[in-house]
UniProtKB/TrEMBL annotation:
SUPFAM superfamilies: Restriction endonuclease-like (SSF52980)
Domain of life of the organism encoding this protein: Eukaryota
Protein name: Putative restriction endonuclease domain-containing protein
Domain (Putative restriction endonuclease) ranges: 87-202
Source species: Rhizophagus irregularis (strain DAOM 181602 / DAOM 197198 / MUCL 43194)
GO biological process: double-strand break repair
Pfam family, one: Uma2
Amino acid sequence: MASTSGNAEARSQVLLTTSTQETKELVLAKDRLLAKGLDLAKDRLLALPQEESEKYTGSRELVLRENVSLDAYLKYRERDPDLSVLIYLDNGTIKAYELPTFPHSRVSATIKVSMGAWNRADLVYGDDVTLILGANSSKEPDSWVRPKYRIRPGPGAPAANNLGAAYPTMIIEVGHSQSLLDLHRKVALYFSPRTTIQIVLLVKIFKPKGNNTITLIVAKYVRTSQTPLIPKQVISFGTATPHQSTINYITNTMGVPQNCFIGFGRRDPVTGNNYPACNMANIGLYLMNIPANELFDGDSTVRPFTQAINQGFNLDLYEIQEAIHLRIANQRLRHIIQEATQLTIEKQELENNISIADN
C-alpha cells in the first residue's frame, strides 16, 4: 500500500510539474507574440507624427491583444515593467499608444519640477505607476501627484493597486505620437467610478512646422465639475495657430465652450480681439490654475489652507513651451550638422574621383 501511495504521489508530482511547465511555456509564447507586436507598434508609432498632418483627429492607438484579464495584465507588467512602447489595458484590450520620447518625458518632468518648487512639503510626485482603473482596465500615467498624507482606502474599498495604495489626486498625460482624441478618451478611465482621481491634465504636442513653429494644446479636467469629461479649460500655448480641424474637434466633439478655449490663434469671444502670444513668462492668460481643493483631496492635515495653498498652483505654460522649443532647436541643429557632414563626405568623394581620373 505504501508503494502504491508513493507511486500515486510520484504521478501527481509529474503531472503538476508538467502542468506548471506547460503553463510557463504558454506564458513565454504569449510574451514572445506580444513582444513582436510591440516591435511592430514601435515602428508604426515612430512614423505617425511624420506621416499624418495636424488636421488628423482620429485614433492612433494600436490594438495588440484582446480578451485580456486585469490579473493577467498586471502580472505581465510586473514581469516586464520597462517596455519600448507605452501600453495600457482598456476594457480587456491591450493597446499601444505612445513612445517614451524625449519631448514626451520632458514636458511631464517640467510640470513636476515646477509644481515641486511650489510645494514639496505636502505633495509627492511620481511616474509610470500601474493604476487599476476598472474591472478590466489599467494604465500607467506619465506622471502623478498626490497629497503626502492622503488617507488610504479602507478594507474592501477600491485602491490604486493590489497593495491598497491611495489614488493620486492629479494625473498628467502628454501626447506626442497619440492623437488629441486618444488623450481625451483616457479621461473617462481616470474618472471611472472606481477611482478617486480629481484632476487630469493633458498636453498635446503637434508636429513642428517647417518654420520651426509648433501647435501646443493643454486641457484641464476636474472631477467635481458638472461635466467632468469636458475640459474646464483648454489653452493653445504654442507658436503656431491650431489647425481648423483641431479647433472643430475641441469645440464640437469635446464640447468645450468658446470662452473656455483660449490662447494663441484664438479670438476673445467678447471683444473679438486676438489673444496675445505666449512669448514670455508670467502672462496671466497662460497661467493654468490647478485648484487646491481637488489637489489636496483626502488630506485633512493641510486644512485649513494657508493663503499660498488656497490659491492653488499656477502652471506657467511658457515654461513647457520653452522646454519643447529647446528640443526642436536641438533637433534642427543636429539635422543641419548631419546635412553638412554628408555634403563634406560627398565633396571629398567627388574630389577623390576627379584625382583618380586625372591620374
